Amino acid sequence: MTARERHESKSALEAAVCREMVRQGLSHEHRSLHFRVHAGAKGRAKFSPAIVAHRGPILFLVEPVPTATRPSIDRLTRFLEQHSPEIVLVIVAPDPKVRTFPIEAYDEIYAESDIARMTQRIREQDPEGIVLPFEKPRPAG
Fold first, then answer.
1. pLDDT at res. 4
2. Do the beta carbons of residue 58 and residue 131 sit within 8 Å?
3. How many CB atoms lie within 10 A of CB 12?
4. Which of 22, 40, 63, 104 is deepest in the core (most CB within 10 A)?
C-alpha cells in the first residue's frame, strides 16, 4: 500500500483533518480499524472510523461528519455505549453544526475551524496518562 493510498480521504472535511495531522507530524491511518456495533433487532452495523491516531494504548477515532443523519448518530451513540474507555471518539463537524450534534454521540467534538487545535490536543495527549476531560459544548437552544 502506498502512502497516498493510506491517506485517501472520502470527503473534503476528512482531507482537511489529514492535512493538518500531517502538518503537525501526527501519525495516523485511514479506515484501518473495523468494528461491529450492536444495532438491536437489526443485528450489527459496521463502523470503520475515518481516521485512527494511536497515543500509546489510547485510540483516537476521528470521524469527520459533514452532515449528520439519524442512522449515523445512532451508530455513533451505540458504539460509545459498547466500546472501551481507552477509545476516544472525536467528531469534526462544520462550524454551525457543532452545537446541534447530540452530546451522547461523541467523546469530543471540534468545529472544522478548530482542526489545528484538535490535532494538537491529540498530539499532546500523554500516552501513559489519563485522557484529559473534554467540556462538551451546550446544545443550541
1. 43
2. yes
3. 10
4. 63
SS3 assignment, position 93: strand
Element (H, E) at 11: none
Q: Which of 83, 101, 14 is nearest to 50 (CA)?
A: 14
- Amino acid in position 66: P
The answer to whether 88 and 61 are in contact (CB under 8 A) is yes
Q: Return the ∠ at Cα 13 (arms to 76 and 122), rounded to 5°.
A: 70
- pLDDT tens column, 48-106: 999 999 999 999 999 999 988 898 899 999 999 988 778 999 999 999 999 989 999 99
Global pTM value = 0.89
- CB–CB of 92/64 below 8 Å? yes
Q: At what angle do helices 12-23 and 115-124 cross, to 10 degrees?
A: 50
**Grid coordinates belonging to 5:** 493510498
Outline where DSSP puts E strands in 32-111: 35-38, 44-47, 51-55, 58-64, 87-93, 108-111
